[in-house]
Specification:
The chain is an alpha/beta fold. Among the domains are: 257 residues, FAD/NAD(P)-binding domain (3-Layer(bba) Sandwich), CATH 3.50.50.60; 74 residues, no CATH class; 70 residues, no CATH class. Helix content is 31%, strand content 13%. The protein has 21 helices and 18 strands. InterPro entries: FAD/NAD-bd_sf, Oleate_hydratase. This is Oleate hydratase. It comes from Marinobacter guineae. One of its GO terms (molecular function) is oleate hydratase activity.
């Protein structure tokens, strides 16, 4: 059945409201961090960061949508999501949507391939959590892989994770396989203040500042930073602004950082879990996809008198030679700028990976397309800030396909369940804290691939420090073959007496990625373009290298969010994309995070809060210590001790005015004014 493209015809009895809404206009990307929350006649729309069913309304179609075409450059999760939102919320016929994909398979950086004989490979994995509003919105409508209709991918995901809680019992290792205490964040009071100071800092004041420029050397050696950098792949020379955004975005998960209880994982690898079902749905809807099609440039009309910029054609190169696709004024173009996994070099058991010999970084097609666009106007950003320092953005991963061996026996010791059981194994990465490479490995639920034999386990390992010799294999990781990487890993597990048996039972496949953390490189305002750059009438950017108000990069959610913003903005859809989950404004989360950062001990003032709120309706906002139960909130010991401490503080400062001055001095230092 053909759908009408006239909103007022669809809702004739609502015509007066539809007309009023069109006149009102909608800010597609509201910013919760720049507005003061209140209710009034000036707030007809929901709060910027409201999450819930009320924000799941389906918008009316844009006038003339059935006559418009959409071109999507790249079929990673951002591109696939753009097509989803064009169809569901934009009401565009799927047959009007065309993907231009450089590879011979969709998925982009969300890959997963191989077999048990040759070895499986995944270049990277994505740690996930429950508040990915846009991501879960998509997969709440995509048919499930292993359940019948009407069940969805989200339904399957919930069954697996609700029944099998994720956690880690061996997050940090040292001394060749010994579990290191990771129960606390190991932060001194001064180091805690460094974190608070970063949370208080304005985003505008953090341009081009690195993590090591902000934090003290002592902070960089704490449990907190080890857990943080290995979980998110942060380096000391990366952007402290991005680290700040991560802290705000995931503050509600702070007390699950050490043991991974804050995470949820799919049953299979990311390609089979997400890309495959979404692409099946899109193809069933009727989208077009042209594989082996490299987009080299966009021909744009840049000389209009009103400052607008419009794509006129798409320049491509395919197996049949050069091609040009004409783009109408009302057609749409969505481009994934840059690439984290472009120019990946591969290795195996016997061969180390070799990066492409290039005189200049960023020569791959994804980066070159962005470079070509950036030369047309500064509104398209500065790609060289992200692709211009390969040593600073490189790390390597190795996928291990394992038959039974002493390595699997050691894995059982470090896992919360038998890895062969299908339940959570390591619960996320395990890091060797005394590894010169800062090496980590993980075992997700098995099988990791649908066709994986019962006696095979797939492990994944990576390291952050690329330029240091190994502790057993005396070479930097990128110079090692797969077997040598496996030997180094076995050394840190205390398994060097069993190397021959382990090597015989294990296949390795290496991925050395020169841009894998390029999205974290230090940046300033204007380095990343807006999703819809200034003046653009039919072009939107997506992925990990575009600007958003408060969201972070290197997540599935950020890819989906940018795609959704692009669709809503170009089509003028009267619907908002919710801002990030507001956990940073939840007093319960703030108190819980404060105690977590204080090694799970009572923080200054907690005793007073307990005296005020204990035994009242609001006592549930108070955090409990590791060995406490709710009845302990009514005890006076903590209050008395902290009251005495405050009295001593005032007495030492002689007068109340001096005490106020002392407190103000602390606040000024935190805000960077001292």
């Amino acid at each position: 059945m053909t759908r009408s493209t006239t909103p007022r015809n669809l809702g004739s009895k609502l015509a007066r409201y539809i007309e009023a809404l069109e006149k009102q206009g909608v800010d597609v990307t509201p910013d919760a961090s720049s507005s003061h929350l209140h209710n009034g006649i000036d707030t007809p729309l929901p709060p910027a960061d409201l999450h819930g069913s009320y924000t799941n309304n389906r918008p009316l179609p844009t006038e003339g949508i059935t006559e418009r075409q959409a071109w999507i450059v790249g079929s990673g999760i951002a591109g696939l999501s753009a097509a989803f939102f064009l169809i569901r919320d934009g009401h565009m016929p799927a047959s009007n949507i065309t993907f231009l994909e450089e590879q011979d398979i969709e998925g982009g950086s969300l890959d997963g391939a191989g077999n048990a004989e040759d070895g499986y490979i995944v270049r990277g994995g994505r740690e996930m959590e429950m508040t990915y509003q846009n991501f879960w919105d998509v997969f709440s409508e995509i048919p499930a892989l292993e359940l019948p209709a009407p069940f969805t991918v989200l339904d399957e995901y919930r069954i697996v994770n609700d029944a099998d809680k994720n956690w880690s019992k061996a997050r940090l290792l040292e001394n060749q396989g010994q579990i290191k205490d990771f129960s606390t964040m190991d932060l001194t009071r001064r180091q805690q203040l460094e974190v608070i100071r970063l949370l208080l800092a304005r985003k505008e004041d953090l341009d081009d500042i690195t993590v090591e420029q902000w934090f003290s050397e002592g902070f960089l050696n704490t449990n907190f930073y080890t857990l943080w950098r290995t979980m998110f792949a942060f380096q000391n020379w990366h952007s402290v602004l991005e680290m700040k955004l991560y802290m705000h975005r995931f503050l509600h998960l702070m007390d699950g950082l050490n043991d991974m209880t804050s995470l949820v994982f799919p049953k299979y690898n990311q390609y089979d879990s997400f890309v495959r079902p979404l692409m099946i749905w899109l193809k069933d809807q009727g989208v077009n996809i042209q594989y082996d099609m490299t987009v080299t440039d966009l021909d744009m009309d840049m000389d209009t008198g009103d400052g607008s910029r419009a794509v006129k054609s798409i320049q491509c190169h395919g197996g049949d030679g050069d091609k040009t696709f004409n783009v109408g004024a009302r057609d749409l173009v969505f481009v994934t700028t840059g690439s984290m996994t472009e120019d990946t070099a591969y290795g195996d058991d016997d061969n180390a990976p070799r990066l492409k010999d290039s005189n200049e970084a960023g020569q791959g097609s994804g980066w070159q397309l962005w470079r070509n666009l950036a030369e047309k106007s500064e509104v398209f950003g500065r790609p060289e800030k992200f692709c211009g320092d390969i040593p600073g953005s490189t790390w390597e991963s190795v996928t291990l396909t394992c038959k039974p061996s002493p390595l699997m026996d050691k894995l059982k010791e470090l896992s919360v369940n038998d890895p062969y059981s299908g339940f959570t194994a390591t619960g996320g990465i395990i890091t060797f804290t005394d590894s010169s490479w800062l090496m980590s490995f993980t075992c997700n639920r098995q099988p990791h691939f649908p066709d994986q034999p019962d006696d095979v386990i797939v492990l994944w390992t990576y390291a952050l420090l690329m330029d240091k010799p190994g502790d057993y294999v005396n070479k930097p990781m990128p110079e090692c073959s797969g077997r040598e990487v496996l030997i180094e890993m076995c050394y840190h597990l205390g398994l060097t007496d069993h190397l021959d048996e382990i090597l015989a039972a294990t296949k390795t496949r290496i991925a050395l990625m020169p841009y894998i953390t390029s999205q974290f490189m230090p940046r300033a305002r204007g380095d990343r373009p807006q999703v819809v750059p200034e003046g653009c009438t039919n072009l939107a950017f997506m992925g990990q290298f575009v600007e958003t108000h408060n969201d972070v990069v290197f997540t599935l959610e950020s890819s989906v969010r940018t795609a959704r913003i692009g669709v809503y903005s170009l089509l003028g859809i009267n619907k908002q994309v919710p801002d990030i989950y507001p956990g940073q404004y939840d007093i319960r989360r703030l108190l819980r995070a404060t105690r977590t950062l204080n090694s799970n001990e009572a923080f200054l003032g907690e005793g007073i809060l307990r005296r005020l709120l204990g035994g009242t309706y609001f006592e549930n906002i108070l955090p409990l210590g590791p060995d406490e139960d709710p009845a302990d909130l009514h005890k006076s010991g903590l209050f008395d001790n902290q009251l005495q401490a405050i009295r001593r503080l005032v007495e030492e400062n002689h007068t109340l005015d001096e005490a106020k001055g002392w407190v103000q001095g602390i606040l000024d230092k935190l805000r960077g004014r001292g």
